[in-house]
Amino acid sequence: HSFPPQRTVIVTHSNAALNDLFEKVMARGDIPERYLLRLGSGERDLQTTSHHDFTKMGRVAHTLERRATLLEQVQLLSESLGVSGKAERGADGSPSYTCETAGYFNLHHVLKRIHLFEKKVKELKNKTESDVSDKFPFRAYFGDIGKEGTAQLSIQEARARFSRIQEVFLELAEYRPLELLRSQRQRSDYLLTKQARVVAMTCTHAAIARSHLIEVGFQYDNLLMEEAGQMMEIETFVPLLLQKGESDIAKSRLKRICLIGDHHQLPPVVKNMAFSKFSNLDQSLFTRLIRLGVPYTELNRQGRARASIARLYSWRYRELGDLGHVSTRKAFKVANAGFKYPFQMINVEDFEGRGEST
To answer: Are 164 and 171 in contact (CB under 8 A)?
Structure first.
């Protein structure tokens, strides 16, 4: 919110956590869909309402579809002003405008009429809604102004509609490079390096794609890592180095790093016993920083478990309480099918003489 143009990279340890976080970002609606990008194979499990997926290829398809929709609006606006006619459309009825020519149309016809409207309104003595509606230059395009039984416009409403029109041309200006880039690879790399504001990937994909990201000049300002307590230190360092330094002093564009995790839960999984125990590879950078006394913020409320279950592990945290919905939502009041108590310990016998081991 404070820095809208900046690019943020979201990294998690698992695809499930990444998809969950990505879906929450989408649900908030703060960032337009065209600025969201999900890298890696786990994208197919995303639960979204978009017509196209959030891979690079899916975003290219979404962008081209969105471009065609906006150019159709420009064509209708042009026809309503008498600048062009239906005869100028393509054989299949497609708009005659491109992103480039739409920009010229906005400059020479749309903005000119807006400035003229502002001048006429300024000269009005009694700025009634009827007078403003009569001067409004895009009545034919909107079709709901000035006719019998239709609404009249105030100056604020007229300017709001001007803003809606200008948003169309501003968005088309972002898509103009796609008219010059012809290959799918070039277009997807452009969206990655120039347009996307939120790029999500797992730490594994970050290691795989690092060389390509540096090659295409990928840069970002903020890094958010979820499940940081489950990442090995090297897995945490790789996402910090997905871009080249600037100039001779190798200054990174990266401004903020946010690590989110729980060092009381699962540590990094290292199957080699020697590496795990003697090289301390099972210690995450997140855990190391906390043990070194780096300042951190600890949440003191949980909202995932029943209060009775939360008391099993609340001793591990300082003053851990419950969010309000834990005691009010129906899901927390209904019994678990097949269980007599809210939680039960089930003994699992050794399998073929072998039990759990570390």
So the answer is: no
Antiparallel, parallel or unpaired: β 256-259 and 222-225: parallel
Mean pLDDT across the stretch 102-123? 93
Under DSSP, is residue 22 helix (H, G, I), strand (E, B) or coil? helix
| 35 CB-side CA count, 13 A | 16
- CA-to-CA distance for 212 and 218, rounded, in angstroms? 9
Q: Is 11 within 8 Å of 224 (Cβ atoms)?
A: yes
If you average pLDDT over residues 167-173, what whole number do you get?
Answer: 96
CB atoms within 10 A of CB 169: 20
Q: List, for residues 122-133, the tens digit of each pLDDT value.
A: 887 776 777 788
Q: CA separation (Å) from 252 to 168, 215, 237?
A: 34, 16, 14
Separation between Cα atoms, residue 52 and residue 191, nearest integer Å: 15
Give 31-55 as a DSSP string: S-GGGEEE-SGGGGG-----SS-SS
pTM of the model: 0.84
- Identity of the residue numbered 145: I
| Inter-CA distances, 166 with 102, 133, 173, 187, Å | 11, 19, 11, 25
CB atoms within 10 A of CB 281: 18
Cβ within 8 Å of residue 66, ≥6 positions away? 34, 171, 175
Number of CB atoms found within 10 A of residue 155's CB: 17
Residue for token pair 């998809």: 19
Half-sphere exposure of 324 (CA within 13 A, CB side): 0
**Which residues fall within 8 angstroms of residue 68, CB to CB, at 6 or more apart?**
94, 95
Q: Which residue has 């690079």 as its token pair?
A: 56
Contact 130, 152 (CB under 8 A): yes
